[in-house]
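Model it.
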Amino acid sequence: MVLITRKLYFVKILAVLSVIFMLATPSGAVTTPMALVKEKADQVMNILNDPALKNNKEKRRQSVMNVVEGLIDWQEVGKRALAQHWRKRTPQEKEEFVVLFHDLLKRTYSEKLDLYGGEKIVYESETIDGNRATVKTRVINTKKGEEFLVEYRLLKKGERWLGYDMIIEGISAVNNYRTQFNEVITGSSYDALIKKMKSKAFRVKEPQKDAKGTKK
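Modeled.
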């Protein structure tokens, strides 16, 4: 098995911190899924390419978070990641989990912003089927001759398109979180997961692939 390499670290940065799972326009106006993904991704790319922020890691991280902080439906992200365990939680427990998950994602991905290496995004296609949409993109590093696929999955809720998953080279980000949370809960307890998250001891593992590219 080999760990997903640096190029996929960047995709996670871009996807989770610029479009990730629950993206919406501030005004709530109707827009196409692809236009929405491109708008927010471009904002983050501009920050990452800003020479004035190159040597100021903390300011760059905070600038990225300022773009996406109010655009993410953290409860929906938490609900999908916790899956069947979400239904067993009280309203207070759900609220607590969402706060802790938000903190976990922020810590996990903001520290990886420094891995950005000038990658470009090509927007390939947009498919809309009722209230669901898929936006397919390619991320390209021309210097290294590398490229890889990223799909954004979105739902239309009211007048907004909201992302609910991203598929990186065939691997679902939501499934990655879900698997890890489930392992802790079934191997110990929900309280054990919360304890780990509160102590900041829980770290998100990168998904793995074997030589054939199959998720492990």
